[in-house]
Specification:
Elements (H helix, E strand, L loop, with lengths): L9 E5 L8 E4 L10 E7 L2 E8 L18 E7 L2 H14 L3 H9 L12 E5 L9 H9 L8 H8 L3 H9 L3 E5 L20 H16 L4 E6 L5 H14 L3 E5 L7 H11 L4 E3 L5 H13 L4 E4 L11 E6 L8 E2 L5 E2 H12 L3 E5 L4 H8 L4 E5 L11 E5 H4 L9 H12 L3 E5 L8 E4 L16 E3 L4 E3 L6 E3 L13 E4 L3 H11 L5 E4 L6 H13 L5 E4 L12 E6 L13 H13 L10 E6 L5 H8 L2 H14 L6 E10 L2 H13 L7 E14 L2 E11 L4 H10 L9 E6 L5
Parallel strand pairs: 8-15, 8-16, 9-11, 9-12, 10-11, 12-15, 17-27, 18-25, 18-26, 24-25, 26-27
Antiparallel strand pairs: 1-2, 1-4, 3-4, 3-5, 6-7, 13-14, 19-23, 20-21, 21-22, 28-30, 28-31, 29-30
Helix pairs in contact: 1-2, 1-10, 3-4, 4-5, 6-7, 16-17, 17-18
Bound molecules: adenosine-5'-diphosphate (ADP) and zinc ion (ZN).
The site of zinc ion has 8 residues, from loops.
Length: 728
């Protein structure tokens, strides 16, 4: 016989904090809650949003009288059983407390805390006892009998909100709850569907069939840029909307994809709901609710959209699935592409990965038949993807201090004279990546990171791209104090811009990088200007490589094709191939054939060879072979442990202590500690341990057991667990 009343009056609530398990709370009389409900509960002196968690298998008996009660139920949204399973799965896989994963899901209005209901005021029959001119104006403004928010009422009457409050207190006005603003209009699946080409039709039919089957099935849409991958998956989106289910479209750089939203609107009549960091808090709150109620049927968002509480998710799309922006590198370390596949599985929905240059992981999955490949071999417009022509910098490079080879310069002039646009691609922000003292050889470093300071001439300062530290460009060497001895080394986009301006004084130039003052709005405006042909030469970083559609772009010049190679990063070849292929693909998307040039010191490098030959399979065959032979992902699994602290010795010692207590296993090798690839960031010294296992091994479980038996990190030491790290 139990000592306590039935368990129904006690529930576990998971809170968005870094503890291992849920807390118990008492359910007040008259309240009904179920797992997945979001509730407001007290924790210490604070009120917090949490999620009612499924009961533990063997709950400990507790006396409800000793528990704090749930404060209230947050009626706005709840999490589905699939979502709860997803939170658990990610927590397990990434070796993170589930509360930290829940925090990703509840982040929508963390700042607002608990969102309030929208209320308004309207006139009652009561007349005011005290009459003032201000009060009369409010009454007059509301005489039409319509409801207004308090702020609107005050603004219309030209009085302060306290006047409105006073009238509410006197009963002259009454407060009413307003219906929620609609989160999104419903997209129309048949608004304007294009006639598909046969290859597109075949691919679309298979996706539509998968949507109808309401089962987990992974696909890869593999097609060159401009082959209609988007049009094709739009058919699956349309079918999902017809079925009354929801769609999540993940994109790597959503803040910049205005063009995508417009295009979606042309196809479906309305834009999808957007979800990313640039969306305001209020709007986020509305989308969060709408997604939970099912009112929002399509969300296009950055990786964080993966954690939205969809009521009935029926399709997941991961556009540009190879993009490294999908990897979250702080807090909970996760790869949004991989987690999208997991979420789709838990929701029993198809998932579609989309790319012209799939990641090695995805390519291997497609080759092994784990993902069905839908191939779109040709561009819709009939043009060819431009071949990349190498310019061997050893033989035909520019004079010292310049960066554009004479052949490229000549081609640019020809292109512009013919009315086309040229894009120079250089993945280096600022003016010069390094500042050096001519007298003593000193190189200027960030005081708190292991990175060089980058000169930004437009802003007249040196900046750290790691931590944001900035300082005016000094007049003398900080080391030997020789005046005017500092020289910029190497090119950044600002310096390249200077060179183009000298070469082509009449050309209209635009530099595009994330340094562009004016933020996303300005960037969108500049992209539009380029699209409209108001720019002749674009000088840009990888910002311009992604997804934009520049109809007039006829020539692409890659200034330094070798930038990303040879840092000992095992993904360097893959990244370089993808990026350069993508940049070249910006050219000639419409009627005109495009051309692309690669300036390189290593024309014989396999990546350059594959790009120049236009032989994608050659690249994948080779790279997959290298990975397999060297026992690297996806043929092995890695987990990185990064130990950091302000004291280098303490951090290193802790890393060694962790290594020493790693559980013995025939399946796992622990490598390190060694300095992490970024050895110093924001004043924190970083050491890295790598655990490696075979593919099929449960490395998360191993790391969990390891950490359970490991010494605690004390002081400001921190241990981050990065499963499936990007570098290994
Ligand atoms: P991808 O996503 O593969 O780069 P898109 O879907 O963006 O290709 O298509 C490239 C261009 O061709 C777009 O302007 C698109 O509207 C157009 N397009 C592709 N397929 C069709 C089609 N079947 N009918 C009309 N236009 C199409
Ligand atoms: Zn720094």
């Amino acid at each position: 016989m139990s000592l306590f009343p039935p368990r129904e009056s006690v529930v576990d609530v998971l809170l968005p904090v870094a503890v291992g398990s849920a807390y118990s709370y008492r359910v007040p009389e008259g309240m009904e809650v179920a797992p997945g409900d979001i509730v407001v509960v007290p924790l210490g002196p604070r009120m917090m949003l949490g999620c009612v968690w499924p009961p533990a298998e063997n709950p400990k008996p507790v006396d409800p009288a000793k528990l704090k009660p749930i404060h209230r139920k947050y009626d706005v949204a709840s999490l589905s059983p699939a979502m709860l399973a997803f939170i658990r799965w990610i927590a397990d896989y990434t070796v993170t407390p589930p509360g930290m994963v829940l925090r990703l899901a509840l982040r929508h209005d963390e700042s607002a805390g608990i969102s309030r209901e929208r209320t308004g005021v309207r006139l009652t029959d009561q007349r005011p006892q005290r009459r003032t001119a201000a009060r009369e104006r409010v009454i007059e403004a509301l005489a039409d009998g319509f409801v207004r928010s308090k702020t609107d009422a005050a603004r219309e009457a030209g009085v302060s909100p306290s006047v409105v409050d006073g009238l509410v207190d006197d009963g002259v006005l009454e407060t009413v709850v307003l219906p929620p603003e609609p989160a999104a209009e419903r997209p129309d699946p048949d608004h304007s569907a294009p006639e598909l080409l046969p290859a597109q039709r075949d691919a679309a039919d298979r996706l539509v069939e998968a949507v109808k089957a309401r089962a987990f099935r992974p696909y890869l849409i593999d097609g060159v840029t401009g082959s209609g991958k988007t049009e094709t998956y739009f058919e699956a989106v349309a079918e999902t909307i017809r079925q009354g289910r929801q769609v999540l479209i993940l994109m790597p750089e959503i803040a910049l994809t205005q063009a995508f939203l417009d295009r979606f609107a042309r196809r479906f009549g309305v834009k999808p709901a957007e979800w990313h960091s640039a969306v305001g808090t209020k709007r986020r709150g509305r989308v969060f609710k709408g997604v939970s109620s099912g009112e929002v049927s399509v969300v296009a968002g950055a990786r964080s959209a993966l954690f939205l509480p969809f009521r009935d998710l029926g399709l997941v799309i991961v556009d540009e699935e190879h993009d490294s922006a999908y990897k979250q590198e702080d807090g909970v370390h996760y790869h949004a592409r991989d987690m999208a596949v997991v979420r789709a599985r838990l929701e029993e929905a198809p998932v579609v990965l989309v790319s012209a240059t799939p990641s090695i992981e995805t390519e291997v999955n497609a080759r092994r038949g784990r993902y069905s490949r839908l191939h779109l071999p040709e561009r819709f417009a009939g043009t060819k993807v431009p071949r990349l022509e190498p310019i061997d910098l050893r033989k035909e490079g520019p004079p010292r201090g310049q960066w554009i080879a004479p052949r490229l310069a000549a081609e640019m002039e020809r292109t512009i004279e013919a009315g086309g646009q040229a894009l120079l691609f250089l993945n280096r922000r600022g003016y010069a990546p390094l500042t050096l003292c001519r007298a003593c050889g000193h190189r200027i470093r960030c005081p708190s990171c292991s990175s060089w300071l980058v000169e930004h001439r437009f802003r007249r300062r040196l900046e750290c791209h790691q931590c944001g530290y900035a300082t005016p460009v000094p007049n003398e060497c900080p080391n030997c104090h020789e005046p005017n001895s500092l020289i910029p080394c190497g090119p950044g986009v600002e310096r390249l811009h200077e060179e183009v301006a000298k070469l082509m004084p009449n050309a209209r130039l635009q530099v595009l990088s994330s340094d562009l003052a004016g933020g996303v709005e300005r960037l969108r405006a500049e992209l539009k200007a380029i699209e409209d042909g108001a720019v002749d030469v674009i000088v840009g970083t990888q910002l311009v490589a992604k997804g934009h559609n520049f109809p007039g772009l006829a020539l692409v010049g890659v200034i330094d094709a070798d930038v990303g190679l040879g840092h000992g990063d095992p993904r360097a070849a893959e990244r370089t191939f993808q990026l350069l292929h993508q940049v070249a693909g910006r050219a000639g998307r419409h009627e005109k054939e495009g051309r692309a040039f690669l300036q390189t010191y290593m024309p014989e490098h396999p990546v350059m060879q594959a790009l120049v030959a236009g032989d994608r399979d050659a690249f994948y065959d080779r790279e997959i072979g290298v990975r397999e032979e060297a026992h690297l992902p996806p043929f092995a699994r890695f987990c990185a442990l990064i130990v950091s602290g302000t004291d280098a010795h303490a951090a290193q010692a802790h890393a060694r202590a962790l290594a020493a207590c790693s559980p013995l296993s025939n399946e796992v090798r622990v490598l390190g500690p060694a300095e992490a690839p970024l050895a110093l960031v924001r004043g924190r010294h970083r050491y890295r341990l790598l655990a490696r296992s075979d593919r099929g091994f449960d490395l998360s479980n191993y790391v969990r057991a390891w950490m359970a038996g490991a010494p605690r990190a004390t002081g400001n030491l921190r241990v981050e667990i990065d499963i499936d790290p990007q570098s290994f």
